[in-house]
Amino acid sequence: MGADATTLHIAVHALASSLQAQVAAVFFVSAACTVALALLLALLRLRPPWWCACPVCEAYVTASWAREFDNLCDWYAHLLRRAPGRTVHVHVLGNVLTANPATVDHMLRCRFDNYPKGAPFSAILADFLGRGIFNVDGDGWLFQRKLAAAELASPAIRAFAANVVASELRCRLIPLLRSASSYGSERLLDLQDVFRRFAFDCICKISFGLDPGCLELSLPISAFADAFDTASMLSARRATVPMHVVWKLKRLLNIGEERELRDAIRLVDALAAEVIRQRRKLGSAASGDDLLSRFMGSINDDKYLRDIVVSFMLAGRDTVASGLTAFFLLLSDHPEVAAAIRDEVFRVAGGRDPTAASFDFDKLKDMHYVHAALYESMRLFPPVQFDSKFAAGDDTLPDGTFVAKGTRVTYHAYAMGRMESLWGPDCAVFRPERWLSGGRFVPESPYRYPVFQGGVRVCIGKDLAIMEMKAVIVAVVLSFDVEAVDRSSRRPKFAPGLTATFAGGVPVRVRRRAHCAPS
Known about the structure:
Blueprint: H1 2-46, H2 55-62, H3 72-82, E1 87-90, E2 95-98, H4 101-110, H5 119-129, H6 138-152, H7 155-182, E3 189-190, H8 191-208, H9 221-238, H10 244-253, H11 256-282, H12 291-296, H13 302-333, H14 335-348, H15 368-380, E4 386-390, E5 395-396, E6 402-403, E7 408-412, H16 413-416, H17 420-423, E8 436-437, E9 440-441, H18 462-479, E10 480-484, E11 494-495, E12 501-502, E13 507-512
Parallel strand pairs: 2-7
Antiparallel strand pairs: 1-2, 3-13, 4-7, 5-6, 8-9, 10-13, 11-12
Keywords: Heme, Iron, Membrane, Metal-binding, Oxidoreductase, Transmembrane, Transmembrane helix
Organism: Oryza barthii
GO molecular function: heme binding; iron ion binding; monooxygenase activity; oxidoreductase activity, acting on paired donors, with incorporation or reduction of molecular oxygen
């Protein structure tokens, strides 16, 4: 009898424990459902932007635009061409897009004070760019800009940069292309990757006073370059999410793309730290005239220095590589432009037969057709396709669009280059002659052609970037024919990123020109 009572007692206790756990689970689920319902009701009362049912927002949220367009930027260009004021509002993103030069002038010059980068933009890129020049406003931006502008304006640094580019061309890029051409017509190169490596070497030497070959890294430099690309791509994707709370929650939980982004940034941090370490290691043994040395003389915070290094890498590597890749993709479809470039180079050289190794790059400034061709390429394929600011206060744009405080306002350089109202009925045609008058290059307003921004934020590295790209164009076009394989400038496919990147790279076949063959 006693044994039966004990068994019964144990059974009752087990049942009670089981019920207790089940009741607790029921209460937990009920509480979670109640909280979720309360949040949903609160969101319904607030009518958040993603409930917008206008055709533009519906097409964005459902990605139905992809049925007709290969790239989001092409869809935006289509919308802006049809908009009466060349301005559209994508409510689900809280973003006003414009391709109106008057509005660009308004943002970058007339009301510059009302259109900073803004806290929302800085939050999106904070993990990658930190407090670098492209992600700050106010005193932080002004300090970095003044120091960099003073250095880049120096005749000594300009001469040094020209020598670096000439050396990289002579010792690395041209031999690489020559080697690729000597293996016959079947060997392919990813030109986008080649130009990224070239631009990275140049920016390390010019801005940091270092040869990448001296860096003591735990992985091949290509692994760090891939991490840089991944960080750029995933940071850019944050801005395309209608509800920023989604990526913030993923970052908090360290899952999905946010985990991948964190891993990539860890490698970027290691690369930047090694650059800073090597710069300190060289110390007085180096000239100290590079940009990083100047910043290190004023900043003792390594995290801040890291942000500056990453920003200069982004500016010097990605934008130059993007501009050059697009240029040679266009040139592959327009051999007549390559022929015109060679004619100009021979003419400027005084009728002599120049080669990439012997050409005097001081004469680049006399090459107006090369300059025009480069600007025309960047009109169609700007390295930075768009740029956003956030309204610090309520405003009305020149076309009458009301902008509420906190609204993101984006001028779209890619779309502006494809506006018939700005460039005529042949706006989709690659025609360098549109930039020439009497054989001389004639620039356009920076608010009609905002590839280098304009006003107070105009790109301080513009002249350096143009010199570098023109030098590469002249050297490569003189010595080689570059043919894109299974790629065309007429229907490109872009990958997400802070700069324009061609999805899958740009495979090319390189052929050495007959007159450049060894005698």
